[in-house]
Structures are given as structure tokens and as C-alpha cells.
Design a protein that fits this description.
This protein has 263 residues and is of the alpha/beta class. The chain has one domain (63-252): TIM Barrel (Alpha-Beta Barrel). The protein has helices at 2-12, 76-86, 96-101, 103-111, 131-149, 165-170, 185-188, 191-200, 215-230; strands at 63-69, 91-94, 115-118, 155-156, 175-177, 181-182, 207-211, 234-236, 251-252. Residues 69-70, 119, 123, 159 line the site of zinc ion (ZN).
């Protein structure tokens, strides 16, 4: 069959040295095909209303997102148990190196319904690399997360919150996720101070920075969750802050400032 097909195709090709003859007559049919309607262009179908990713409409109610950086760590099993117990979904920004060392922890993060993003391969400051190298590092980290948990992520948390427009533009398809509330857990290791920042500082839409490498943060978690809920906040993932998928090529520090906490 293949040989016959090739033979037929070859037969249609002009033989080398022949001169193409002009077509004797060309007739152009200018009658529009009957299926093309004249007048108004067809109305595109209305887009389906999008479902809020976490089942909470954060364009109406006050939401916050808990985020954990630098893991996965040896504390992840306890942290994930605690989040399950509290019924809270969070977002984890994992380094590539720690993901490669603890792939089962990243798999569990995803299987438990948390969101995951990359936090560079080995916590390098993106601004100390060329833009191309910083993006290659982000891609390598995303591949490690995919290999560990089977999900593609386009979210990047730049280490130290250090980024610039040139790097963002170079990392096509990526969204940089920063924060507007820093619990300073890595600095104080003090559960009372961590809780005070995490509960009192958020506004609607806040993205709260914590670390799954800090044991005291895990100790503080029940108080943080009950304190935020007492203020009237819904706790969602970073994607859950937005009803529509986050468009790539932007850096976000918080979600919609919607709704109002009750205190
Ligand atoms: Zn970090």
C-alpha cells in the first residue's frame, strides 16, 4: 500500500525538465456557499460561568490563602495531618531539590487537595541569575514537581520575594506568587508571634507567608485557623482566591479585596 501510495504521489509530480503549461481556462465560482449566513456575524456562545476552584466565591466573601515555602521538609507529615484535621486547603511552594528528596510528600500535598508551586531548585535569588537561567531553574523545579506528583504547575514563588519584570517576562507561562502578610516564622520561631501576624495582619484576599520547615508554625496552626475563621475569613488555596484561572505573566501579592472580616 505504501509503495503504491508513493508511486501515485510521484506520478503527480512534474518530471524534471518539463515546462508547466498554462491552464487553458479558469472559472471562479463567486456564489457564496449556502451555509454562510449574510448580515450579523454569528453570536459566540456565552461562556460558561466559572466555578470557584475551592467552592467559595472570593469575589464576594473575605478569603485568605495560607502558603508554605521551602519544603517539603521532615515536618510535612505532621503539617499535612494537621491541615487534614482542620479541614483546610493550603498552597505549598516547594524547592526542586527538596521535591526530588521527598517526592512522596509532594504527592501527598496534591492528593490531599492542596495546591503546589515551585520555589526555585535550591533557593537561589532569581535576580542573581540571568533571566534565562532563573527561568530554566523554575522549569527544572516544575518538572521535579510533575515527576513527584503528576501535576503541571505554572506558579512560582521567587525566593526572598526577589524578582523583576525582565525575569517575569522571560519566564513565559509562569505566574509569580508573592505575599502581603509575612508571619516571620523563620525569624522568630515563636508560636505566639507567628499566630499574631497570621491572624491579625490579613485583609480580605491576603496571601500569608509561612514555612513548612518551621516546627513552631505547625504548633501554631490550630490557633491560626481558628483565629482567622473567628474573624470571618474563608481559607482557600492561591487559585481559590480567584474565580478564573490566574493569567500567566503577572506577579500577584494578594487576591480580590472582597467581603469584610467580621472583626
Ligand atoms: Zn524560601
Amino acid at each position: 500500500m505504501l509503495a503504491l501510495g508513493v508511486a501515485c504521489f510521484m506520478a503527480l509530480l512534474p518530471t524534471k525538465g518539463t515546462v508547466a503549461q498554462p491552464a487553458a481556462r479558469v472559472t471562479i465560482d463567486v456564489t457564496p456557499p449556502p451555509e454562510v449566513a449574510k448580515g450579523e456575524p454569528p453570536t459566540p456562545p456565552a461562556p460558561e460561568p466559572s466555578e470557584p476552584p475551592d467552592g467559595v466565591d472570593c469575589s464576594v466573601v473575605a478569603c485568605v490563602a495560607l502558603t508554605f515555602d521551602d519544603g517539603p521538609s521532615a515536618y510535612d507529615a505532621a503539617l499535612l495531618d494537621k491541615l487534614d484535621e482542620l479541614g483546610v486547603k493550603a498552597t505549598f511552594f516547594n524547592t526542586g531539590q527538596n521535591t526530588a528528596n521527598r517526592p512522596e510528600a509532594v504527592k501527598r500535598q496534591v492528593e490531599s487537595g492542596h495546591q503546589v508551586g515551585g520555589h526555585s531548585w535550591n533557593h537561589r535569588d532569581m535576580k542573581k541569575l540571568t533571566a534565562a537561567d532563573a527561568c530554566a531553574d523554575a522549569d527544572r523545579t516544575a518538572r521535579a514537581i510533575r515527576d513527584a506528583a503528576g501535576v503541571e504547575t505554572t506558579l512560582v514563588r521567587p525566593p526572598y520575594g526577589s524578582w523583576n519584570d525582565e525575569i517575569l517576562a522571560a519566564c513565559a507561562g509562569k505566574t509569580f506568587v508573592l505575599w502581603d502578610v509575612d508571619t516571620e516564622d523563620w525569624l522568630t520561631h515563636d508560636p505566639a508571634k507567628i499566630t499574631a501576624h497570621a491572624v491579625n495582619d490579613p485583609k480580605p484576599g491576603s496571601i500569608i507567608l509561612m514555612h513548612d520547615t518551621v516546627a513552631e508554625t505547625i504548633d501554631a496552626l490550630p490557633g491560626i485557623v481558628s483565629g482567622l475563621k473567628a474573624r470571618g475569613f474563608e481559607l482557600v488555596t492561591v487559585a481559590g482566591l480567584f474565580n478564573d484561572p490566574i493569567a500567566p505573566g503577572q506577579a500577584i501579592y494578594f487576591g480580590p479585596r472582597a467581603g469584610a472580616p467580621t472583626s
